[in-house]
């Protein structure tokens, strides 16, 4: 065999099959996405005829995107401090999907490689893949999903509905958009469970079915792409930024997680909590609870994220857990008894729409797995509003008010040994540099102004 043939990312037959599948679906252009460390979805678009070449040699991109901020400025830190160097983006063949709502287009998530065909140390999606594979080698699997809260705005910047929350009145001006969106998501293979207008002006939410973690993270990236596209056709713009209307409720990306072994959901059918998690499900929850304050810089990554993450916003401002408690960062959802076996899960409320979904999931799952390995124990659940607890009660339930700004969250994240070991020094260092720069530039700015700038970035 020619040595050049051995050095490939994909089997040529798999490339030919993927090409045929996309061509049959009428694909002419392929949008490759990667989500950077600031949570911005970056794209490269290739014509279908370049597909084989992209799957063989990749598509070039500067390594510096690892340290880009939401403002497109770079936070130079080694090895990301030079204009030299090139990343190769490869399409993940099995994840490619034609987009019937954008005729001629298909979407595919990118995997970041070095020119040597080693996976890049900065590839966020590959970090998630390896967390999932490690857990699988120990007999554990996961189901995860992101809720998508967004704000719909008219062309003149006014909100596309003015409430009341969850009302028929708010839905009516959005009927056409809603139908088009659900059909477009369906066409992209995303299983919509429900949609509704939400709590603040123009706010709208889409809930979709849980998946394996890599697919769930891919799907939230794809959902945002499709939602923006459908919104434009209806004369709307859409923002997933944590705060779009300063002072009103923000946009979360609540992350639902369940851990499984031997086909059984460990968030149910046990007696450790009431209703019952199994011992490993409770230890998994304890692992996330333990690390949460140190993960915040990834889960709530912008300076404006902390305008959303406030008490009494159902956004998870307190590290604690409770059964169906919407003010707890970790809301345990036992589910309706008839479907509990599959649906019992833990909702992590703290995550917002600017978080990189691959990194957020990877760190949450790895924290949970460490909880299992160390057999961590859960404190008693918090059923009241954590903001109203006395100091004694807070201690008993191990309630911690999460960091209140990005600078503090970044300090804690920089000290997270778990994050460092899951991400590796290079990616961890790049994230810290990006957050430090964002926190520094926010220090002299009005947070409402920052939120308005983020509106059309996320
Ligand atoms: N919008 C809230 C948030 O920022 C969540 C409200 C809800 O629970 O649906 O997280
Ligand atoms: Mg909601």
Protein architecture, described:
- With 458 residues, the chain is of the alpha+beta class.
- The protein has 15 helices and 17 strands.
- The protein has helices spanning 3-6, 12-24, 51-57, 124-137, 168-171, 175-187, 213-233, 279-299, 305-308, 340-343, 357-373, 391-396, 406-414, 417-443, 447-454, and strands spanning 29-35, 41-47, 59-61, 87-91, 97-98, 105-113, 140-146, 148-154, 192-197, 203-208, 236-239, 255-261, 264-265, 318-323, 328-333, 345-348, 400-401.
- The strands form 3 sheets. Strands 7, 12, 13, 14, 15, 16 and 17 form a 7-stranded mixed beta sheet that branches.
- The radius of gyration is 21 Å and the shape is globular.
- The mean pLDDT is 95.
- The structure holds glutamic acid and magnesium ion.
Features:
alpha+beta, binds magnesium ion, single chain, 7-stranded mixed β-sheet, 15 helices, globular, 6-stranded mixed β-sheet
């Amino acid at each position: 065999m020619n040595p050049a043939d051995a050095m490939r990312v994909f089997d040529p037959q798999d490339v030919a099959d993927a090409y045929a599948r996309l061509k049959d679906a009428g694909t002419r252009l392929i949008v490759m996405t990667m989500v950077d460390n600031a949570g911005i979805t970056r794209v490269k678009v290739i014509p279908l005829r370049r597909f084989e070449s992209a799957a063989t040699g990749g598509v070039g991109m500067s390594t510096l995107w690892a340290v880009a901020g939401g403002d497109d400025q770079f936070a130079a830190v080694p090895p990301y401090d030079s204009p030299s160097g090139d990343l190769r983006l490869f399409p993940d063949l099995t994840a490619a999907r034609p987009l019937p709502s954008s005729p001629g287009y298909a979407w595919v998530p990118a995997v970041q490689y070095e020119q040597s065909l080693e996976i890049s140390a900065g590839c966020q999606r590959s970090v998630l893949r390896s967390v999932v594979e490690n857990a699988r080698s120990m007999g554990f699997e996961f189901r995860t999903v992101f809720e998508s809260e967004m704000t719909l705005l008219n062309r003149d910047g006014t909100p596309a509905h003015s409430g009341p929350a969850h009302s028929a009145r708010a839905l009516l001006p959005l009927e056409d958009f809603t139908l088009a969106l659900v059909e477009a998501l369906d066409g992209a293979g995303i299983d919509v469970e429900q949609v509704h207008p939400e709590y603040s002006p123009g706010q709208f939410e889409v809930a979709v079915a849980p998946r394996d973690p890599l697919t769930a993270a891919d799907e939230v990236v794809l959902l945002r792409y499709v939602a923006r596209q459908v919104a434009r056709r209806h004369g709307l713009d859409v923002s997933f930024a944590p705060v779009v209307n300063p002072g009103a409720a923000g946009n979360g990306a609540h992350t639902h997680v369940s851990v499984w072994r031997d086909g059984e959901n460990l968030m149910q059918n046990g007696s450790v909590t009431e209703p019952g998690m199994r011992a490993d499900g409770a230890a998994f929850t304890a692992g996330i609870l333990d690390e949460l304050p140190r993960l915040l810089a990834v889960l709530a990554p912008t300076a404006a994220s902390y305008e959303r993450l406030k008490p009494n916003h159902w956004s998870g401002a307190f590290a604690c857990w409770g059964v169906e408690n919407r003010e707890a960062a970790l809301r345990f959802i036992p589910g309706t008894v008839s479907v509990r076996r599959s649906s019992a899960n833990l909702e992590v409320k703290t995550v917002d729409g600017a978080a990189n979904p691959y990194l957020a999931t990877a760190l949450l799952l790895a924290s949970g797995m460490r909880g299992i390995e160390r057999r961590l124990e859960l404190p008693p659940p918090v059923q009241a509003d954590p903001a109203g607890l006395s100091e004694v009660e807070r201690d008993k339930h191990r309630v911690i008010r999460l960091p209140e700004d990005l600078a503090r969250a970044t300090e804690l994240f920089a000290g997270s040994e778990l994050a460092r070991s899951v991400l590796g020094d290079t990616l961890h260092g790049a994230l810290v540099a990006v957050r430090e720069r964002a926190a520094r530039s926010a220090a002299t700015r009005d947070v409402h102004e920052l939120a308005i700038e983020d509106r059309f970035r996320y």
